[in-house]
Structure formats: C-alpha cells, structure tokens
Amino acid sequence: MIVYFTGTGNSRRAAQLLGSRLNRPLTDATPYIREGKRLELQSDTPWIFVAPTYGWQLPHVFRDLILNADLQGSKEAYFVMTCGSGVGNAEQHLRQLCAKKGLTFKGLQPLVMPENYIAMFPVPDERAATVIIKKADKRLERTVPLMAQGLSLPTVKAGLGGKAMSGIVNTVFTRGVVTAKPFRTTAACMGCGKCARICPRSNISLASGRPVWTDECIHCMACISHCPTKAIEYGRKSVGKPRYLCPEWKETETND
Ligand SMILES: Cc1cc2nc3c(=O)[nH]c(=O)nc-3n(C[C@H](O)[C@H](O)[C@H](O)COP(=O)(O)O)c2cc1C
User: Fold this and answer.
1) Helix, strand, or coil here: 24?
2) Which of 116, 153, 176, 227 lies 20 to 30 Å (CA to CA) from residue 248?
C-alpha cells in the first residue's frame, strides 16, 4: 500500500509511478487530513509513505496521521520525500517515527522535484520543471527494484547542517514562519472557491465570495498554486512569480 500526501502534485506523481511499477494500491491521505479522520488500512506488502519535505522533515500533519493510523498487516515501511533540494536529517526522525509505531524502517528515498514553495522561493517555469521531473522519474525507477525485493535503501547521510535544519530550524520554521496571514486575493478573484475545496486543512472559507484563511495553514501552497486566475498572492513575495503545479495535475485541473 502506498499512502501519499501532496500540495502541488509532485508527491502524487511519485506515488503513482511507484504504484504502477510495483503494482500496489494507492491511498490519498489528503481527505483524511482534511476531515480529521483516522487512517485504517491493511497492507501485505511494506508500507510506502510518499510526501513533500516541509522544513527538512515530513509534513507534521502527515507524520501525525501515520502515528495515529491503524495499520494492519506489514510491519515494514519505506518513505519517499519529494523536495526542492534536500531532506536534511529527516531519516533520523523517520526512524523515530517507525520505532514509536512499531514499524521497521526500510529506508528513505529523497527525490528532488520542482520547488513549489512560492511564498519563499522562486519556482521553476514549465520547461525547467520538465527537466527536473524527468531526472526524478529516473531516480525513482532505480529505487523500484529495491522496494520490489523488500531490500533496505541506502542510508541518507546528514551532516551537522542537516541535523540543525531538521531539528531547531524546523521548529523555528513551523512555529514562526508558517502562517496564513500574508495570503490575500487580488481583483482577479472570481470567488470560485477552488482554494477552499483544495485546502488539505479546511483552512479556507468563503466570505462574501472571497476566501478567508484561518490559522490551520501548513503552507502547502495548494491554494495559491491551484487558483485558476492566479488571484492569490502571499504578501509581495509571490508577485510576478510563475505558479507551479505538477504537469499531470495541471492537465486534469479543468475537470475540477
Ligand atoms: C512549506 C514548505 C516547506 C518546504 N521545505 C523544503 C525543504 O525543507 N527542503 C526542500 O528541499 N524542499 C522544501 N520544500 C519544497 C517541496 O518539498 C517540494 O517542492 C515538493 O516536491 C512539493 O511536493 P508536492 O507537489 O507533492 O506538494 C518545501 C515546500 C513547502 C511548501
């Protein structure tokens, strides 16, 4: 069983690739997170958890979902963390998560994919993203045989910098940086409500036809990246930047 969480589609793409190569079913964790429901699943093969990297760690909402989940069957777990550049010392934190959960940690595959953190960094345009995605697909293809045979993945080494990033910097980031306050809409907002529907935290509601953000934001960038009229900005930081969505999600977007 592959369980994934995604804001802009990178992790969903990685999960789908693994699902098709390994012939394993997929579960989208987003509705469970959105509705605060407990995950109750059965898997006879090792669990594969796929998610973006937030502050050099697994997103806290996804970690908590796993911690509280009722996972029947296999007691082994692999992790794939998509990222813009690196995962720091996430592996040690995943080992601790597995220990708490009574799972055997089988390895972490960091997967560099297009950066989506438009509130902080520039995101790649379509051409640059295509090149990064192709490389990521190839990287993941090399991991497939190891997962298929149930072998452990190579250790992801983190130096002192990585330890600090996934440790103290993650704490400061989560407590001090992640806030919805700077989100605003421009005159281009049509009040379609897509941002509210797509938010994995149910953190957006419509008031007088305009989105309003409350304080459960995890900065997944789904609202700003999925807005069909690019009417959402994050303060001034996102102004003039391209929005990023993983290509196949963009293709299905018109049906939403
Ligand atoms: C809140 C937030 C924090 C992020 N932190 C990191 C990070 O610590 N390291 C990194 O390489 N990429 C980081 N990124 C980039 C994403 O992990 C990366 O683009 C990921 O593939 C997005 O996955 P998704 O499309 O499945 O949501 C961050 C993105 C967001 C939105």
Assistant:
1) coil
2) 153
CA of 83 to the centre of ligand 1 (A): 5
Residues whose CB falls within 8 Å of the CB of residue 138, separated by 6 or more in sequence, listed in order: none
pLDDT tens, residue by residue, 127-151: 999 999 999 999 999 999 999 999 9
In the chain, % helix, strand, coil (3-state, to 5) comes to: 40, 20, 40
Task: Pick one of 3.30.70.20, 3.40.1620.10, 2.60.120.10, 3.40.50.970 as the CATH number of 183-255.
Answer: 3.30.70.20
Among protein residues, the one with the nearest Cα to ligand 1's atom 3 is: 54
The DSSP H or E segment spanning 27 is strand 26-28
The pTM of the full predicted model, rounded to 2 decimals, is: 0.97
Burial (CB count within 10 angstroms: exposed 0-12, middle 13-18, buried 19+), residue 144: middle
Going from N- to C-terminal start, the domains of the chain cover 2-173, 183-255
Which of 3, 54, 249 for a ligand 1 pocket mutation test, highest count of atoms within 8 Å of Cβ?
A: 54
- Polymer length in residues for the chain: 256
Give the span between the Cα atoms of 142 and 146, in whole angstroms.
8
Q: Dmax of the chain from CA atoms?
A: 55
Q: What is the pLDDT of residues 33-85, one digit of tens each?
A: 999 999 999 999 999 999 999 999 999 999 999 999 999 999 999 999 999 99
Atom nearest to 11 CA in ligand 1:
26
Please name the residue ranges forming H helices in the chain.
Answer: 10-22, 30-35, 60-68, 90-101, 126-148, 160-164, 170-172, 194-198, 222-226, 247-252
